[in-house]
Write a structure and sequence with these properties.
This protein has 148 residues and is of the alpha/beta class. 42% of the residues lie in helices and 14% in strands.
Length: 148
Amino acid sequence: MKKILFICLGNICRSPLAEGIAQHIAQQKDLDLEIDSAGTSNWHEGENPCGHSIKVAGQNGIDISKQRSRPVTKQDITYFDCVVAMDEQNKSDLENFGFTYVYKLGDFGGYQGSDVPDPYFFPGFEGFEKVFEMVKNCVSDFLEQECK
């Protein structure tokens, strides 16, 4: 079983979406994967994903409401086979933390290495819809390429 960890800063919007989407795809395609998410900070430790992330996931048939934010740990370095950062800053932070190889989600799905933007930088709910679509495309491609 391959173990995948998706990472963003606070683990309340982007990485929970990636976790939920990956779990949904893995279930549909009967892939033997363990999927989790975490944040490079502990600012939201123990909190649910933000309301807009829960809403946009739900509108797409994915329930992420039971997820809880957690910070990345030293144990994650050896436990997970694939660590996937949402943006270049997360990737750099993870490498400085001790991870030897970190994927960047925007390297998949035809996004030419783009950062997955924080949806809070967009006005209103529209940003969450845009980020959901990007994450869905990138996660789908990542799983196709790396988890055959």
